[in-house]
Design a protein that fits this description.
- The complex is a heterodimer.
- By secondary structure, chain A is mainly β.
- In chain A, 0% of the residues lie in helices and 50% in strands.
- In chain A, strands 2, 4, 5, 6, 9, 10 and 11 form a seven-stranded mixed beta sheet that branches.
- Chain A is globular, with a radius of gyration of 14 Å.
- The termini of chain A are far apart.
- Chain B contains no helices and eleven strands.
- The chains are: A mainly beta, B mainly beta.
- At the A-B interface, strand 4, strand 5 and strand 10 of A face strand 5, strand 9 and strand 10 of B.
Chain lengths: 117, 113
């Protein structure tokens, strides 16, 4: 079946512009996660969705970052007024469900490589 | 808070040699531990996971890991390295809030002929 997909695969933008990154999780997966992978910081958790709500936003680095999920499916990560330090690969993952003691495997998408000039 | 530490950012082995990638965890509660692999320009793929069942966990591509509570370790091993094993390997632990993953810094495995 189809895996997690992300678009665009690459995004180059100018400092100060807004960008939107999209994630399509595996059909039927209720939990969705955003991570960021950068050379300096490694892999960092950003935000977790269960259905359309985000019970854990603790990893969002600043108020320039926001995310939403609609219909329990597609999620969009928005970065406003991008800065050069936002350059990274943004990874999305989904699992059957989250927030339980019985771990559900997270399946990762290929990522979006964001470059801020 | 749960965290993992991967010892060695780069590991080089000869083809056919033993692969040993080290991971130590810190957790105040019984952890869920994972190893992921990332091939160049690709996403993360789960190799194996420990969820408090058997302490020796077998994964894909001949990899296995052993959970040792006394040593707070979850090292990844493979008896015989193959050229195709060259990749970045990440150890991760699930955190309480949202059960998101907390990753180590990663270990880059180089396999030489």
């Amino acid at each position: 079946g189809a895996g997690v997909s992300q678009s665009p695969s690459n995004k180059v933008t100018e400092k100060g512009k807004d960008v939107e990154l999209r994630c399509d999780p595996i059909s039927g997966h209720t939990a969705l996660y955003w991570y960021r992978q950068s050379l300096g910081q490694g892999l960092e958790f950003l935000i977790y969705f269960q259905g359309n709500s985000a019970p854990d936003k603790s990893g969002l680095p600043s108020d320039r970052f926001s995310a939403e999920r609609t219909g329990g499916s597609v999620s969009t990560l928005t970065i406003q007024r991008t800065q050069q330090e936002d350059s990274a690969v943004y990874l999305c993952a989904s699992s059957v469900r989250g927030g339980t003691r019985f771990y559900n495997e997270q399946f990762f998408g290929p990522g979006t490589r964001l470059t801020v000039l | 808070a749960q965290s993992v530490t991967q010892l060695g950012s780069h590991v080089s082995v000869s083809e056919g040699a033993l692969v040993l990638l080290r991971c130590n965890y810190s957790s105040s509660v019984p952890p869920y531990l994972f190893w992921y692999v990332q091939y160049p320009n690709q996403g993360l793929q789960l190799l194996l996971k420990y969820t408090s069942a058997a302490t020796l966990v077998k994964g894909i591509n001949g990899f296995e890991a052993e959970f040792k509570k006394s040593e707070t370790s979850f090292h990844l091993t493979k008896p015989s390295a193959h050229m195709s094993d060259a990749a970045e390997y990440f150890c991760a632990v699930s955190v309480n809030s949202g059960y998101a993953l907390n990753f180590g810094k990663g270990t880059s495995l180089l396999v030489t002929p």
